[in-house]
User: Fold this.
Amino acid sequence: MLDPVTVFRKYESLRSRLPSFNSPATTIEINSILEIAREVDVFVFDAFGVLNIGEALIPGADLAIKELRKLNKKVRVLTNAASYDKVGSEKKFFDLGLSFSTNEIITSRDAALENIASGLWGVITAEADNLNDLEAEYILLTDIEEDFDKVDGFLFLSTSEWNSKKQLLLQHSVLKNDRPVIIANADLVAPRENGFTLEPGFYGHELIDLGASKVKFFGKPYSEVYQLLTKSLSDVPGNKIAMCGDSLHTDILGAASQGWKTVLVTKDGLFSGFDTKSYSKESGIFPNWRLDRIHS
Assistant:
């Protein structure tokens, strides 16, 4: 069973594959995201661990978003969840009681699909994913070995239908014929109601460890997804954008690498029940602000 300590150690072992960044000298403790509203023009929220855990809304998240809108602050969701297209993502948040327009939701899936070249792609995704937003030719990968060998590249969107047998088929095929592997969710794990699930990023790094050379990650902490988000803004400087997330190595490190301000949310996500101060000290990844939940 994965736990926050194991996940932290795994991310630390991958530091050479993550972007460079600058941490602030100090972290300020706050009780509500509203306390820093005067210093920030755009609030960017991770989903898992900040707005929701699985299918459950985190208490107060809806109130925080409403209050920020009343203050004329721009809000965005920046998530590594790649199992849904734009329509599905918007519906997911609506079902949680959170209203975001399509242009306010930026996902690692968006960034990955912008980097799909021509050819036949083998897609790994959720059963319910209709792939309406994928313009390239593709086949869905199941457990048929021949399908892995005949595609020109792999698009890894979701682990909901993935297992060790399929991962072995992917490993054997890529190591036999090294082709692009697009990891559309760079997370190693995602917090759920009953623990953590392994995400595409975990399997992507496993492929690199085995010798694959054409694996590329999309989503936090990598730059492409941040560039997509800033396209939806009108020249807001980085020091007026604040990323609110639960992970040091994705949310905080990634945003800091873009020159954004950062807020570590600690109560419900990756570090739930743990003292994040010690992890910041060990990793050297410090947020500008830290709080339990975005709304007290």
Remarks:
- The chain has ten helices and 16 strands.
- The CA atoms of residues 15 and 175 lie 24 Å apart.
- The domain at 111-217 is CATH 3.40.50.1000 (Rossmann fold).
- The chain has two domains: 4-109+221-291, 111-217.
